[in-house]
Every structure is written in structure tokens, then in C-alpha cells.
Design goal:
The complex is a heterodimer of chains A (about 350) and B (about 400). Chain A is mainly α. Chain A is built from twelve helices and two strands, in the order αααααββααααααα.
Chain lengths: ~350, ~400
């Protein structure tokens, strides 16, 4: 997938940059893996345990990847880091649960699918409203101002969720069994949850759809143009402000999908957006905030390494890992490990 | 009327207007109530707030309480939400003490926020009755003496650990894993387990914390690798449910033991089938209808349960409602001993002294309490009932069924 990369032939410099990026990433990830495996030896872990960490980490990683894509979409088109992304992730499952609980004359499976679809639609609408009502009026303010506005938006959405749903945790039924308990498979001695398959499938489908959108639709190409050079895009007649709203709609859809598909694994509650939003942000940073491939890769790597780390050291410090990664990354390679980068025009 | 006389009259009227109402207001006793109604502690705080509302309605209906000198005082329970945050709790405690001028604080659903409020209440010489369980709330860990201004009717993780150790020994388990949430409460459960289990011949093969909001639990791999015979979980729902589900997924036969923090219908609602067969020490109120007929706590609890159901429109009781009820009952009992006309600092001191000396054989939801200057808790491990989850309900597990 090329995302918002230019369609032109890559230059020698481009290729060199990509290779250097890949080498850096491979090197750092390799060192971390070796360290963690060495640390794990004192617990007597076998291959099965490491594979289990990998599988569980890929589940978390797929979620982080989806959330990260939302960050990248908004940032590329508007330059804003959307700290309200976590709220979209929370709204997806919470709205699904509410719609699913309505008395509709449908069997459970189509009812859940319809509830999810309605939830995604409504979250998309909320995403558009967020941009139109909170960010578009501030379009002449500084970037920093607009980023802080998104922090405010997150708090407003979380507060509204608290009023609407209360503080208690809810239950979203697993997609396979349509009840709280999920089915699981044993591959060798490694446990794979049915919901994990849903998560991976959704992530792959979403990434493919996103690629097709950017590559083959007018709207997608227009968004790429805005990301590439806003002034030039405006000069060719593209409504840049509409594209910005669309970017938020896209981010909202991505967030909601991520939240809905991970909902059965946790107990959705009004405050669930904060942590997953921050981790998705770290994953997006790994892609330099400009690369879709980088974001997906970053999400997967973060999920896997975080799980390994928690398994071989003190698991209570699992969250610490993501933020240590963030700081180290910003110190040694702030541009991330993205593929091609765009010059950001005005 | 001359200008000067007019001004003098105005000043006198203003003076009276400001000070007269204040004299009348001294008759209302204020209880400051802080619970974690939102945040991770909500499943504990919401039932506690229900109880505060129920008691406020009862007090308003009775038109307050009557002191020993037959003077009637209205009682106002000022309710705040600390959002499960220690910082917010500390700020609210200060506000209740300084601005609302409460006579007694009933505050702290969770151990973390309670510990944050302890020094504030102590410095302000205001009695505080906490609804959380950590020992350090009432006992200074450095001197091992009771904190003079702090009380709690809530059993501790030490008692919970003792009951757990009793059960584990009786069923022949010698090696356990201990998973606890990474909060003050969870760490306290782990410290208690480390203090109590070795004396009962039980070793902790693997102990680790987990994140309350996690979705993957790599700790489970360590549990399997350690070969422990049972997993003890020190957490509250929904976090306790998530780790319960994760352990059950991968280790279908290992026993799961919870602490008393899991004694809530929320555990079953959020863990579902994975909670079947788990065992935990719980306050008697959870299984009041299964207590033997000669237990004085039984009648008391059954009456409270029906009042609670009426007041909340059908909510099931939880042990945390019981803690709030006991804490508020203690506060009201102490306030009832106050003569009229005490200035606020003296009133607070009098409540403190009453709590230490006047709570004797006091029937509560969790047992029969007797407080003293050396014991601000009044609870014994045998006040716990050992409970299991069967068919989606909490069922008493009598000793002869421990196997």
C-alpha cells in the first residue's frame, strides 16, 4: 500500500532513505528481541510461551495499528495531532452495545452487525462534527492551539460518555459465540482466541480498503493532494477544508472499528479511550506521523514487544514500555521509520 | 432620621443578618461523604452512594437525630465524587473540612484516595471513617500505633489473607500464584499474602501485578510455568474479572481464589462463566439469607437489604454498600452523643472520642464491632464468610464442604 506516497519513481536518495530506515528498525527491534529472550531465560520459558506472547502481542498490535492509522490520516491532511482519537475508539463499542440492546426484530448476529454499522456511522458523524464545530472555526489559529483543542474535545466526549452510560463497565458479546465467553483454538500449545481472528481480519481488510480508497477514488486522491501540498491542492480546486473534515471522519471510522473489534476482549467503559489512544499515538510516531506503513508496522511491533516485555519482566510495568519507547524514539530517530515522506506545503 | 443614625442602624442590621443565621445553622450536623462514584472504583462507589442517599432520606424523614440533652439536630450528608483519584480526594477532603465545615468525614472508597486524605484529616483534627481496606489507613506503619483521628469498619487484606490461608490449607494447597492489580489496594493484598501465607505453610511461587485496563495478560504464561496449584487474585471488578477470565482460558483446572474486594455482583456480571467455582472471603451481608438463624447479623442485614432494594428501585446489595452503611452508622452514633452548642473543633474532638469509646457490641453489616483506643477497626477474621460462585450466584461454602 502506498498510502499518501507520491506516484512518481523513487529517486536514489529515496531508496537510500528507505533502506536506512529499514536497517535502523530491524536493528533496534532485533536488539530488543534478543534482550527480552535473554531476560526470559531465567523464568524457564519455552518456545510455546514466546509464541503465546507473539500471538497476544499481535492482537494488541493490530488494534494499535488501526488507531495509529487514524492519527496519521488526520495529521497528513491537516497537520493536527488529534488527541481525541481515543474517544472515537471508546464510542465505537459503547454505541454498539446501546444499539445492540434495543429491541429489534432480528436474530442476534444480524442485530450485532447492524448495531456495529450504526455505531460506526454515528461515530463518523461525531468525527465530522468535531472538525466542523471545534477545529474549523480555529483554522487560522496556530497548530498548537488546534492540537490543544483536540485534548479538550477528548475530555468533552469522555464526559458526555460518562453522562450517557455511567461509570460502569459494559459487556460486548464475542462475535463468534454472541455471548460473553469466547471460543478459542489450540495451535500446538498456543491459545488463539476466536476474537483475535476477527481483530486480525478486520485490520487487514481495513488497511486494504484504505489503500484502495487512496489509490482508486477521486476523494482519496484529493486527500493525498492536500497532504502533499495544501496550497497547490487549493489552487487545483480541491476544497481543502472539506478534505480536512473528511480526514476526521476517516479517523473516527478507524477508531470506532478498532474499538468495536477489541470490545469483546475487554469490558468497554467510558474511560477506555485514553490508554489505547496514547499507545496508538506512540505507534503513529514510530511511522513519523506521516507514514501509513510505518504506523501499521509500529503498532504491530509495539504490541508484540510490549507483551514480551511484560512477560519477562514485571508485568505491572507493561504500560511503562510504550512510553519508554516513545521517549527513546523521539530522542534517537524522531522522524520515525516511515517509508517515503512528503514535503508539507502550506 | 439623621444620616449618622441611619448608618448605625444599617450596620447593626447587617451585623445581625450576618451573625444570627450562623447561630441557627450550628444545629445542622454535616457529614462529609466522599466516594469513588466514577473511575475504576465505581463498582464500589456507586453502591456506597446509594447508601448515603438512603440514609439521608431516612434522616430527613426522621427530622435528624436527637442529642443526649433532647435537642434535635438536622443531619446533612454532603456527597462528593473523588473519581477514584487520590489528588481529587485530597482536594475534596480539604474543601469539606474548611469550607463545608463538616463535623466528621466518611470518606474513601479505595485505599489510595483514603491514604491521601489521612494526613489532611489528621492535621485538621477532623475524625475520618474510611470505607477502604488498607491497614495503613488506620495504623501508622512506622510506629504500628492507631492513628488517633482515623477509623474504618472495613476488613483488611490481612484478615482476607488469613481466611484464604485457612481455606487453602484445608484443601491441601501448598503453592500458589498471586496476581494483584497495580494499585495501593492490590499491593496491600500482596503484602498481606506475603505476611500470612508462609506461616500457614503456603509458598507464593509467582507473584506479579497487572494493569487494571489491560487486554492481554502475559502473566498467565508465568502462572503456567510456575506450576502453582491455585491462583490468588487481589483486585476488584472489572479488573478482577478480566484476569479471572484470562487465567481460566489457559488453565482450566487451576483453582482461583479472590480477595474480599471481589465480593460484588459485578464480578459475576463481568466474568460470567469464568467466575464459577471461584472462592473468596466475603462480608456476611453478601449472603445474609444463607446465614444461620441464630446469627444476630442476619436479621440486621436482611432488614437493610430490603430497605436498600426499596430505596434504590431494585439494586442488589453489595458488601461495599455494607461498608458505607457501617461507616455512616458509626458517624451517626457518635454524633448522637454530642451535647448542643459545641463549637466545631470541640464537636470534632467529641465525635472522635465517642467513636473510640461508645462503639461497643455495635451490630453492623459485616459483624459486631467493638472499637477502642487500640483498635479502630473492631473486625475479626471469623467475621468473614467463605463464599463461592455457583450457578451465577454467591453461595456460602461451609467448612465441611471445603475440599
Amino acid at each position: 500500500m502506498r498510502g499518501l506516497a507520491p506516484a512518481s519513481a523513487t529517486t536514489v536518495l529515496e531508496r537510500q532513505r528507505r533502506v536506512s530506515s529499514a536497517l535502523w528498525l530491524a536493528g533496534i527491534v532485533g536488539i530488543m528481541f534478543v534482550t527480552l529472550i535473554l531476560l526470559g531465560r531465567r523464568h524457564g520459558f519455552g518456545l510455546t510461551d514466546y509464541l503465546q506472547f507473539l500471538v497476544d502481542g499481535l492482537q494488541a498490535g493490530a488494534i494499535y495499528a488501526l488507531v495509529a492509522l487514524g492519527f496519521v490520516a488526520v495529521h497528513r491532511v491537516t497537520g493536527i495531532i488529534n488527541f481525541a482519537q481515543g474517544a472515537f475508539v471508546m464510542l465505537g463499542p459503547m454505541l454498539t452495545i446501546t444499539f445492540y440492546g434495543q429491541p429489534l426484530p432480528l436474530p442476534p448476529a444480524p442485530r450485532l452487525a447492524l448495531a456495529a454499522a450504526l455505531a460506526i456511522l454515528m461515530t463518523a458523524g461525531i468525527g465530522a462534527a468535531v472538525h466542523r464545530l471545534a477545529l474549523h472555526p480555529a483554522r487560522n489559529s496556530s497548530l498548537l492551539t488546534r492540537i490543544i483543542i483536540t485534548v479538550g474535545v477528548y475530555l468533552i466526549l469522555q464526559g458526555a460518555a460518562l453522562l450517557a452510560w455511567g461509570p460502569r463497565p459494559y459487556v460486548l458479546p464475542a462475535f463468534t459465540t454472541l455471548e460473553m465467553g469466547d471460543r478459542s483454538f489450540l495451535l500446538g500449545d498456543v491459545l488463539v482466541r476466536a476474537q483475535s481472528l476477527w481483530i486480525w481480519g478486520t485490520a487487514v481488510a481495513t488497511v486494504a480498503l484504505l489503500a484502495a480508497f487512496f489509490e482508486h477514488t477521486i476523494l482519496g486522491k484529493a486527500m493525498r493532494a492536500c497532504a502533499s501540498n495544501r496550497l497547490a491542492a487549493r489552487l487545483t480546486g480541491i476544497q481543502v477544508d472539506t478534505m480536512a473534515t473528511l480526514a476526521f471522519v476517516l479517523a473516527a471510522i478507524l477508531g470506532a472499528v478498532a474499538g468495536i473489534v477489541v470490545g469483546p476482549v475487554t469490558r468497554p467503559t467510558f474511560s477506555m479511550g485514553l490508554e489505547v489512544g496514547l499507545k496508538g499515538f506512540v505507534a503513529a510516531i514510530m511511522g513519523g506521523l506521516v507514514s501509513f506503513q510505518g504506523a501499521v508496522l509500529g503498532g504491530l511491533i509495539l504490541g508484540i514487544l510490549e507483551n514480551f516485555w511484560a512477560g519477562v519482566t514485571l508485568a505491572g510495568f507493561k504500560d511503562l514500555f510504550a512510553f519508554v519507547v516513545l521517549i527513546v524514539l523521539l530522542l534517537i530517530r524522531p522522524q520515525g521509520f516511515g517509508g517515503a515522506e512528503e514535503g508539507e506545503g502550506t | 432620621m439623621s444620616g449618622r443614625r441611619f448608618v448605625a442602624l444599617a450596620v447593626i442590621i447587617l451585623f445581625l443578618a450576618v451573625f444570627l443565621p450562623r447561630a441557627a445553622a450550628a444545629h445542622t450536623y454535616k457529614i462529609g461523604f466522599i466516594a469513588s462514584v466514577t473511575g475504576p472504583g465505581a463498582s464500589l462507589g456507586v453502591p456506597e452512594r446509594f447508601v448515603a442517599r438512603m440514609l439521608q432520606d431516612r434522616l430527613t424523614g426522621q427530622r435528624g437525630i436527637v442529642g443526649p440533652d433532647k435537642v434535635r439536630h438536622a443531619v446533612e450528608i454532603v456527597v462528593f465524587d473523588d473519581q477514584s483519584s487520590a489528588d481529587v480526594a485530597a482536594g475534596l477532603a480539604r474543601r469539606l473540612i474548611e469550607e463545608e465545615k463538616v463535623t466528621v468525614l466518611v470518606a474513601g472508597t479505595l485505599s489510595g484516595p483514603s491514604l491521601a486524605m489521612v494526613p489532611i484529616a489528621g492535621e485538621a483534627r477532623t475524625p475520618m471513617i474510611s470505607m477502604a481496606s488498607a491497614r495503613a489507613i488506620i495504623e501508622d506503619p512506622a510506629t504500628k500505633r492507631m492513628r488517633p483521628w482515623i477509623f474504618k469498619p472495613v476488613p483488611e487484606n490481612l484478615h482476607s489473607a488469613q481466611k484464604q490461608a485457612e481455606y487453602l490449607s484445608a484443601v491441601g494447597i501448598r503453592s500458589v500464584c498471586h496476581l494483584y492489580e497495580n494499585t495501593a489496594y492490590g499491593q496491600d493484598t500482596f503484602a498481606s499474602a506475603n505476611a500470612i501465607y508462609p506461616k500457614a505453610g503456603i509458598s507464593i511461587a509467582y507473584g506479579d501485578s497487572f494493569d487494571r485496563t489491560g487486554t492481554e495478560f502475559p502473566q498467565v504464561a508465568r502462572v503456567r510455568a510456575s506450576g502453582c496449584q491455585a491462583v490468588v487474585i487481589g483486585s476488584i471488578p472489572p479488573a478482577a474479572s478480566l484476569i479471572n477470565v484470562a487465567v481460566r482460558e489457559r488453565a482450566a483446572r487451576v483453582r482461583i481464589i479472590h480477595g474480599h474486594g471481589a465480593c460484588s455482583p459485578d464480578l459475576i456480571a463481568t466474568a460470567g462463566r469464568a467466575a464459577e467455582g471461584t472462592v473468596m472471603p466475603c462480608g456476611k451481608i453478601l449472603v445474609a439469607d444463607q446465614l444461620p438463624a441464630n446469627d444476630p447479623v442476619r436479621a440486621f442485614d436482611l432488614r437493610l437489604i430490603s430497605d436498600y432494594r426499596v430505596s434504590t428501585g431494585g439494586q442488589p446489595i453489595s458488601t461495599f454498600s455494607g461498608h458505607a452503611y457501617d461507616a455512616l452508622s458509626w458517624a451517626l452514633a457518635a454524633l448522637r452523643t454530642l451535647p448542643d452548642g459545641l463549637p466545631l473543633p470541640a464537636a470534632r474532638q467529641a465525635v472522635r472520642d465517642a467513636l473510640e469509646t461508645k462503639i461497643v457490641n455495635f451490630v453492623g453489616t459485616h459483624g459486631i464491632f467493638t472499637l477502642s483506643p487500640e483498635d479502630h477497626l473492631g473486625f475479626k477474621p471469623d467475621d468473614f464468610a467463605v463464599v463461592t460462585v455457583k450457578g451465577g450466584k454467591f453461595v456460602i461454602l461451609p467448612r465441611n464442604q471445603w475440599k
